[in-house]
Amino acid sequence: MAVKKMARETRMTVNNALALFRDHGGVMRSRDVRACGVHQATLARLRDEGRITVLVRGVYRLSSLPPLSQPDLVALSWKVPQAVVCLISALAFHGLTDEVPHTVDCALLRGARHPHPKYPPLRVFSFTRSAFNAGIDVQTIDGTPVRVYCPEKTLVDCFKFRNKLGMDVALDALRRYRAKYGLRVEPLMRYARICRVQNIMRPYLEATR
Q1: Predicted local confidence at residue 1, as pLDDT
Q2: What span, in angstroms and rounded, lies between the C-alpha atoms of 150 and 186?
Q3: How many domains is the chain built from?
Q4: Predicted local distance difference test score (pLDDT) of residue 126
Q5: What is the pTM of this model?
Q6: 35 and 130: one domain?
Q7: Average pLDDT over the chain, rounded to whole?
Q8: 48 and 24 within one domain
Q9: ∠109-144-75 over CA atoms, to 5°?
Q10: How many CB atoms are closer than 10 A to CB 77?
Q11: Could you write out the DSSP letters of every residue in 36-54?
Q12: Which of 53, 65, 132, 176 could be joined to 96 by an S-S link, Cβ 3.0–4.6 Å?
């Protein structure tokens, strides 16, 4: 009888843990799950049985959820929540490049510690406070809020970092931006002034009108 009672209580704990995950959109940090009264052994059992998977270290996701559409960006949001997706990764997110990013380009405030997680692979860029805070959109990707620079700020950043990316990347992004959104000069120049590339961008904007 004692063995049956223990098995029943274990099943209840497992079921409660699964319900907890569902109540939180299917993704939770292990420390938050434990804070809700779920034992680490229960988490390990759910993982070993394939009911949850490791998204990044310390973060679990229900296996029953659909596959992630942007696993690297979702992982970045959980691993480095203060980062903002930028440059090539942001271009790809907005459909402004055919280039397939092999790392996640992300911005951090100048002077911040640069993380080096095993996953996702990162290419980190340091931004001044004004440039870092400008143009951040919070996109919900696979149920997770992810900070991504808006198309206009992303395009300006490509001109700002043209020596690292190549001017051809910035000009191709400008062409695709105009085809997709039209030429929104006012927001582009506003971000260009913040990033101090207005004199560089102005001739290209005038040439594409």
Answers
A1: 43
A2: 14
A3: 2
A4: 96
A5: 0.84
A6: no
A7: 89
A8: yes
A9: 60
A10: 23
A11: TT--HHHHHHHHHTTSEEE
A12: 176
Q: Torsions phi, psi of 177, nearest 5? A: -60, -45
In the chain, the amino acid numbered 5 is K
192: helix, coil or strand? helix
Residues 6+ apart with CB under 8 A from 162: 169, 170, 200
**Token pair recorded at residue 195:** 């990033």
Strands 104-109 and 122-127: parallel
Burial of 202 (0-12, 13-18, 19+ CB in 10 A): middle
**Boundaries of domain holding 88:** 71-207
User: Which pLDDT value is given to residue 104?
Assistant: 96
CA distance linking residue 177 with residue 200, whole number of Å? 17
